[in-house]
Amino acid sequence: MSKQTSVVARQVMWNRLISVVEEQAQALVRTAFSTSVREAGDLSAGIYDTQGRMLAQAVTGTPGHVNAMADAVPHFMRRIGVENIFEGDVYITNDPWEGTGHLHDITVVTPSFHQGVFVGFFGCTAHIVDIGGRGFGADANSIYEEGLYIPIMKLIEKGEVDQTLLRIVRGNVREPDQLVGDIYALATCNEIGHRRLVDMMNEFSLESLDEIATFIMDNSRRATLERINALPRASANGSMTIDGFSKPIELKVKLDFEQDRILCDFAGTSGLDKKGINVPMVYTKAYACYALKCAIAPEIPNNAASLAPFEVTAPINSIVNAVHPAPVALRHVIGHMVPDAVYDALDKILPDTVPAEGAGTLCNFQVSLRPRTDDISDAAQIAAQQAAGRAEVLTFNSGGSGARPRLDGMNATAFPSGVMTMPIEATEHTGPVIIWRKELRPDSGGAGKYRGGLGQYMEVGAVEGHEFDFQAMFDRVDHPARGRKGGSDGAPTVIHQDDGTPMQGKGKQFVPHGRRVMLEFPGGAGYGSPKERDAALVRRDLARGYISAETCITEYGFSESEVKAVLDAVRAGEEVS
C-alpha cells in the first residue's frame, strides 16, 4: 500500500469512527425513556483509545456533555483500575466533578474488546428527569441535597448486572422505571457502537486502534495549532453580569493568544453561590473551549487533540470552579453564559467574528404535579382530585440567539447548548400538564443591522384536579442580552402567574389549582446600528409579525405611511419585499 493510499485509508477510517459514534447516539435517542433525551437530544456519545483520549464524538449532543465527557474516561480508568477492566464490563457514574457537571447526568463507559484484546472505550451521557433529592432545581444548599450520588463503579462486570445498585437507584428516585430504563439505554447504545467498531476493524483488518488514534491526534493537533498560530498575539478582558439566584453574578475572563495555545482565565469572577447554580470546572472548561473552537477552528473535528491547546483556568471556589460539596444542579444556567463572556473578550481581538449576546442559558422548567390539596366540595372536582396522579414533567425551551456579524439571530434556538426545543405534544404526553400557549414573542429580538433572534411566549397549567410546583431555571430577567456594535439589547425574561402574582426566575414555587404560569422567554441582541438594516428586511419582519409597527417606526426609522402600506399588503394577501 502506497503512503498516499494509506493516508486516504486512515481518513476513511476516521470518518467511519464519526459515523459509528453518531449511530451510537441515535440508538440512545431511540431507546431512552427520558423526554430530555428522546425529544431534546440532551446527550453525548464518543469513542476513546486505550489511554482514555477521545477520538471522535457524535454530531448529535450538546457541547457541555461532549467536551466534559472528554475528560471523564481517564477518571474511570483511575477509579476502576486498568487491571480490573474485563470484557463484558460496563461502568457508570453521575459524579459532577468526574462526569459532566451535575447529578442529573448519568455517564456510562464500556470497554471495547476485539478478538479478546482491549482496544478502547465507548462513552455516553444523558440527562435524566429525576435523580431524587430536592429534584432538579437551584434550591439545595449542598450536593448532598440534590439527589442520589453514584460513584464511578461497575454497573455490569463480565456480563453480570449489579442488581444491588439498581435496587438502591429504584429506592431513591421518583421515576424508577424511567431512570433504570435510561441506564439500560445508555449501556445499549455503547454496545451498538462496539458492534459497529468491530465491523470496521474487521473490514480494514485492524488489530488495534493505535495507528488511527495517532493519525487523528497528530492531524487534529497540527490543524488546530495552525489556526491558533495564525492569530495575532494579543490579550483582552471580557465580562458580563447575569442574574444569579438572590444577587447578580459577575463573570470575568481574560484571553491570552500565545504560541501553540490560547489561555482563558476566569480570575475575578464571583465566588460560590449558596444555592445550586455553581459550576464544576469540567463544565466551565467545556463551554469555554466550545466558544473558542466555534470562532477559531469550527470545522476541525472535536477530539482530545483539537481541544488540548485551549487551556482554561479559574480560581477554586469561584462560581465557575465549584468544588465538592457545592450545590451544582443548575450548573448549566451559569455555564451557558460562559461563551458570551468569552466572546466579549474575543471581539476585542478578532472584531466582526463573534455574535451579539443571546438568551444564553436554556429556558427550562420542571413541573411537579400532584392531586390538589385545597378544600373543595363540588362532586366533579372531588372526582377529578381522586383521579389525579403524580408526575414529573421536564421541558426544554429556548430564547433567541444573538445576531451574527452578517446574519440575523435565530428564533427560539439554543446557543450554546444546541439542544432542541421539545414539542408540546411530547411534553403533555409525559404527565397531566397543559401548554396553553407557545409562540414566538414579537419585538423580543434586539434591533440592529442584523436583528436578534426572537424568544417565545409560553402559558403552562395543569389538568383539572392537579396543583403543581413550578421549578424555574431562568436567567436574563434583570440582565438581558447586550447588543454588539450599536445593536439593541434583547428583551428580558418575564415570569408571573395569570392573576399577576410575580414569580422568581429561579427556584421551586407553588402554583395552586386553576392557576397558570405565564412566561416570556428572552430575545437575542442585535448586531450593528438599526439604521443600517436593509429596508426590505424590516418590511419582511413587520409582515411576518417579528416586529411591531411601533418598533418599525422608533427603531428603524420607517414612517407611519410606510408601515401602513406593509400592513395593508399583508391583509390583502400580497407579497411583501
TrEMBL record:
GO molecular function: 5-oxoprolinase (ATP-hydrolyzing) activity; ligase activity
Record InterPro entries: Hydantoinase_B (IPR003692), Oxoprolinase-like (IPR045079)
Top-level class of the enzyme under EC nomenclature: ligase
Biological processes annotated in GO: glutathione metabolic process
Chain ranges passing through the membrane: none
Pfam families reported in the protein's UniProt record: Hydantoinase_B (PF02538)
UniProt keywords, alphabetically: Ligase
Region (Disordered): 483-507
Entry EC number(s): 6.4.1.8
Coiled-coil regions listed in the entry: none
An annotated GO cellular component: cytosol
UniProt-recorded name of the protein: Acetophenone carboxylase delta subunit
Protein source organism: Granulosicoccus antarcticus IMCC3135
